[in-house]
Write a structure and sequence with these properties.
Blueprint: H1 6-13, H2 19-29, E1 34-38, H3 44-51, E2 55-60, H4 63-75, E3 82-84, E4 96-101, H5 112-125, E5 126-137, H6 139-145, E6 151-154, E7 158-166, E8 172-183, E9 186-197, H7 201-210, E10 213-220, E11 233-240
Parallel strand pairs: 1-2, 1-4, 2-3, 4-5
Antiparallel strand pairs: 5-11, 6-7, 7-8, 8-9, 10-11
Helix pairs in contact: 2-3
Length: 241
Amino acid sequence: MKYGKFAAVYDGLMEDIPYEKYVEWVASGVPSGKLLDVACGTGTLSQLFAEMGYDVTASDLSEDMLTVANQRFQEANQTIPVLQLSMDNLEGLEGFDIVTIAIDSLNYLQSGQQVQQTFKEVHNALNSGGHFFFDVHSVFKVDVVYMASPFVYDAEEIAYIWHTEPGEAEHSVIHDMTFFVRHNELFERFEETHEQQTFPVGVYTKWLEAAGFSVESITADFSDQAPDDESERIFFHARKK
């Protein structure tokens, strides 16, 4: 999907995401190598991986997100190739030791078929024995936590009102967000609608195995603990057979 003006405020809204823990999780499994950061967004994780010594390539479908990512890399004097690609069509990319799809990006795919195709594309992009790391929203988060909206955020430079409602598909949600962004003494208002869908852990596992992966670990909520019924974010580490 295209994010429009959302790309410009994305980093401010993601301040509570412990990106360093994500990097630590990947590094604990694979401490170095050639890494493809799929759905890289504004490039925060790509930058951190590069700082850790990984040979990073970043991709995203959104031109707006990639514009912000490119600026980030340039300001940090980092040479990170940037590709505008959909995660379910990686256009013959190959030779990677690691592929990441971070921060529930996979949940933006519109069908289970697209998720399965993404797993096949990632498999093709990896070397034999290569590693795949990703996270998704849990069924509990989509079906229960998100239904407690509206959510309100109010900071000095940005505020938003965030409404959610169930989507048409099972375990899907529609996010309707109204943003107010400060420009000097005035606030600009704009709206975004995002749709996400998730699936039970067992379904992701089945699709990974069908795509040619072995599942190395399934954990929850930036910890080393297995998911329970109220876990909100599920982390998968899989390996190409």
